[in-house]
């Protein structure tokens, strides 16, 4: 019993220490948010605004990337096909991880910042404006491509507003793997076909992680455990 009591005490202290650390990370992120958003616009520009998307294109974008973007609080761990990264979480990765984002425990920090800092302090329109202008969309000749306007010129040689629906879908479809889904490649063409079938109601995602619309029912043991933990920490507000 004494050993069990000690074990429980150690676990409790560990959880308390973790809660304090993440609460501090959230407070720090909230303080940095206005400056980080301003710096991102200064670096990548503001060529595109949400108004650059027609209602139909906006619906397509959100259906593919983040179906509940307009109503969630930075995180969505329930909608089939949404994956574990909302638009807000994707922005958090770009804004708050200057040394690069490494999968694993960083996902917890990214998720908490997305919900309690970025989404809490930044309007949905401002987030969408950020998304359109700073999203990473692969590289060309060693140059990183950020923003949909730059990607339209780079991959299709035309202005963003001149893209066809298929070209627009190809750019959106890149986001899941920007360096391996460049427009015109077989992998990109296949993804565009699957996304088009999804948008037309011909196929439906089977689970949260079914981002490829292939019928994936669940993730790995590690993914499922991480999702369970993320649901836990995003349901309770930090002090």
UniProtKB/TrEMBL annotation:
It comes from Thiothrix nivea (strain ATCC 35100 / DSM 5205 / JP2). GO terms for biological process: peptidoglycan biosynthetic process. Keywords: Transferase. Pathway: Cell wall biogenesis; peptidoglycan biosynthesis. This is Glycosyl transferase family 51. Transmembrane segments: none annotated. Coiled coil: none annotated. GO terms for cellular component: outer membrane-bounded periplasmic space. The keyword Transferase applies. Residues 42-189 form the Glycosyl transferase family domain. GO terms for molecular function: peptidoglycan glycosyltransferase activity. It comes from the Bacteria. PANTHER family: BINDING PROTEIN TRANSPEPTIDASE, PUTATIVE-RELATED, PEPTIDOGLYCAN GLYCOSYLTRANSFERASE.
